[in-house]
Amino acid sequence: MTERVPVLRIGQVLLVSIQTDLDDQAVMLLQDDLAAAVVDAGAHGVVIDITAVEIVDSFVGRMLATIASISRLLDAQTVVVGMRPAVAITLVELGLSLGGVRTALTLDKGLRVLEQARAATGLEGARPDAAAGQ
């Protein structure tokens, strides 16, 4: 049986730390779990930490872009953090630009990217139900 990747909540941000190489089934479960978690938590941001990922293929690369698209449709920004140089090179060689996916070198920088994006929308500190009613 495929293990699920935990989705942790930190305030209005969801954190996914991928610690192993994912098979196709685990990737599909992650997409479903994360989409449900964004809705359930009313999250405005998703951070995907891939520090431990050493190898990516085209499926995993497309998954990152798909997760970002799903999150964006659910009103949450996605930041991928901890990308190794070899992973970045592989993604470029595969022709995957990860359009719409923001990146940061560290988790701290990724959280700051989300804070800045949230502040730019003028909704910093606003309750989700209050913002929706406007």
The number of strands is: 5
Mean pLDDT: 85
- Residue share in β-strands: 15-25%
Overall radius of gyration: 15 Å
Fraction of residues in H or I helices: 40-55%
- Given helix and strand content, the structural type is alpha/beta
SSE arrangement, N to C: EEHEHEHEHH
Number of helices: 5
Report the uncertain regions: 124-134
How would you write the strand order of the largest sheet?
1-2-3-4-5
Largest sheet: 5 strands, mixed
Query: Which of globular, elongated, flat, extended, rod-shaped describes the shape?
Result: globular
Instruction: Compute the separation of the termini in Å.
Output: 45 Å
Output the keywords.
134 residues, alpha/beta, 5-stranded mixed β-sheet, 5 strands, 16% strand
Walkthrough of the structure:
By secondary structure, the chain is an alpha/beta fold. The chain contains five helices and five strands, in the order ββαβαβαβαα. A five-stranded mixed beta sheet has the order 1-2-3-4-5, sandwiched between helices. α1 (24-41) runs parallel beside α2 (58-73). The model is unreliable at 124-134 (pLDDT under 50).
Brief summary:
The protein is α/β, with parallel strands linked by helices. Helices cover 46% and strands 16% of the residues.
